[in-house]
Request: fold
Amino acid sequence: MENPETGQETETFWIEEAMYKILEKTDYSDDVYMQVIEAPQVAATAQAGQFVILRIHEEGERIPLTIADFDREKGTITIVVQAVGKSTRHLQTLGKGDSLANFIGPLGLPSEVEKVGTVVCAGGGVGVAPVYPIARELKKAGNKVIGIVAARTKNLLLWEDKMSELCDELIVTTDDGSHGRKALVTEPLKELCQDGSVNLVYAIGPAIMMKFCCKTTEEFGVRTIVSLNSIMIDGTGMCGACRVDVGGETKFVCVDGPEFDGHQVDFDLLMSRQRQYLEQEKISNDLFLECRGDKKCLT
Reply:
């Protein structure tokens, strides 16, 4: 393009307004919330099992989040977040009409969906959200889907109604018995495996929950897929921060996963790496809580 003042050719840069607008926001508890993000290009190719990485502002931390739902027609991606540190708590302060600086995806490999027979989809805590689209696609493929929705207490249960609508059978458990069956997720899972009719299990939730789900199913030789939530930075396999040990080999969650054969995952190493920056995360979170309301401090 020619500069009218100098007559010389200059490069043209297209600068867009922030386009990743938050269309809906729901708080499920003090720490867990849902946001529906306007991201038509991401929604156009998103598949069950994949994830996104977002940044609140240009100097913000990169936050990897598994896709909880997507709508191609509306051009939206749904995320469900548990606020555990400064960035996720900052994200929680944003509501309808606010925008995000970056929203990258879909990343990772999609779930391998095929007709295998009877599939158990077990979600623990916020893990219910990412297991939902997987269960939906497995149902569309002609499988019998048995859902297990688990949480510590009734108030922390997520998407029981959504899972109930698509599952052939839904089992609800709470650690304290405040809703559904008083049990850990592994108890009904073991009973279903003992029946001998389960062909595949998806287990998504805290690492400790996935570990014991895998120990439960391994006894019966039932293939079990887990979605790993390791520390991640760039999401393209370049930094190596998300490396995990699967079957004695180093894998990168961002490009080789996030889903893996749970019987091959070294969960103890995964959980050890997840704890690497707990002290720094606590300091950052405490500082954020101290200065909440000060916009300069939020950055």
In short: The radius of gyration is 21 Å. Residues 128-140 form the longest helix (13 residues). The CA atoms of residues 236 and 254 lie 6 Å apart.
